Amino acid sequence: MTVHSARLEALRATLADRQLDGFVVPLTDEHMSEYVGDYAQRLAWLTGFQGSAGTAVVLADRAAIFTDGRYTLQVREQVSADDWDYVDVPATSIADWLAVNAASGARIGYDPWLHTRSWVDQAGAVLADRAVALVAVAANPVDAIWTDRPAPSPARLTVQPDAVAGASSATKRAQIADWLTEKNADAVVLSALDSIAWVLNTRGGDVDHTPVALSYAIVHADGETDLFVAPEKVDDTVRQHLGNSVRLRDRAGFADALAGFAGRRVAVDPAGSVAAIADALEAGGATTLPLRDPVLLPKAIKNAVEIAGHRAASRRDGAALTRFLHWVATECPKGGQTELSAAAKLLEFRQETGLLLDTSFDTISATGGHGASPHYRVTPESNAPIELGQLYLVDSGGQYADGTTDVTRVLPIGEPTAEMRDRFTRVLKGHIAIATAIFPDGTMGGQIDAFARRPLWEAGLDFGHGTGHGVGAYLSVHEGPQRIAPPDHPSGQALEPLRAGMLLSNEPGYYKAGEYGIRIENLLLVVPHAVAGGDPERAMLAFETLTFAPIERNLIDPALLTADELLWLDAYHAKVAEIIGPLLADGEVREWLATKCAPLG
């Protein structure tokens, strides 16, 4: 019996002891975070799955793991089919699967600190027809058998200076106070870690790649705020920064504090806060208002200082990436390099900037068939040699105090095939279609997603992930509420209007299972755009590309590009050469870049 099989059996025994017929294990934490600390990696511990999104459901005689199209290959490599059924979402929801597989009258446990009330209500409604009950547990049964579970991170809070943030915490809290007055609310609970970090102009080190601290905040209608955080995380510098209007309270006392709002109206985000928060408020006599986190939009719409910071971060990051691309083109065809050695070399180039604080996610360093898994994560066990005839895909980013980056490039190791060039060029055409889009203010990301797919659709092809996600300002590399994705994307973020100041990725791709993967990713800024002769009453928007690094010309079939697409590509490469060239100290790398950026048209 494997270690993960033994853990599954131990969980089943614990469920039986608690008179539960099943249990739901999501990959998140009590803040509904996408990336979580080691202490919250319950799904990985139970199943072996290393992806960043998924859920497991365990019944007495059956178990299933739910993942989306990004992890179709990865989940099958990491999770045993002997123990688990593989279920694709959103095609099949957890509730739909339980309605078919759980016996009538079954009691299915869930941890109310790991699920939103929206999920509980919607899943409960589906299961009611089968007389299957969702049961909130007081203690997570996975934690009961995870005897060597890591402790939460002890990392301290740090200050994000106003000069980098672009607005003081006092200003931001005053804006929330105004919002509360408008909503006739007494307070709002902030549980999203990046929202708290943005409002308070603090950062932390509790989650790999995302500079946040485990905490909760309650902002009151007068702007005063209670910050619930472990006392040992706060030093005098942070105390002085927060000032007297932010009361420091122990994070361990947060749940009990929710009982102290009797008779008051408290806003709680139904999509981003766990069910336990609203449950505790209402049990204490408060009225909960299901309102969206008021920080989401201000955080997503970058101010002038944040935009300037991102430009600076993009320039230095682009220079580091360009040095790496030159290294790959020079060294990898010689043999002897692997996915891990390449990832280490890229990290070395970024570290040499002297300003890198972290990577913004685990670098996707994928050669050959590994590139066909969009969120592949190289491990010592999966580490593959980079060999001639393959495509090498690298998706990576850096965390700098002034900005968060995310960029993907693909290089051929040796001579690419005609099919590789065709597919790469179609992905490039889709990338250009997004980069050059002009659209009315109020357009949603879901309305332009098809621009990126049309060149692939015309060849009977597609890709199974969204085209773009929001990006934070030295915060989460995946930031809502905006997204470029099909209108029916399960997050619902594809229906968020795009607004000037938002940052998004532009990353169409193509994946051939077992052979190669292609993705071209730059970051974009939504900007106002004047159209000559257009309706003066209709505000228009466009995208400005902020990422600068060469796009591999040896993978491009110019015959597939239109004249306008060639003009865009040549103009983009001219700007890459102009911005990145002077940052390269090595003459050989500068000459290589000049060659890569020469006009193709």
TrEMBL record:
Alphabetized GO MF terms: aminopeptidase activity
Record-annotated membrane-spanning stretches: none
Record Pfam families: Creatinase_N, Creatinase_N_2, Peptidase_M24, Peptidase_M24_C
Keyword Metal-binding (UniProt): yes
Entry-linked PANTHER family: XAA-PRO AMINOPEPTIDASE 1
Family statement: Belongs to the peptidase M24B family.
Protein name: Aminopeptidase P family protein
UniProt lineage: Bacteria, Pseudomonadati, Pseudomonadota, Alphaproteobacteria, Sphingomonadales
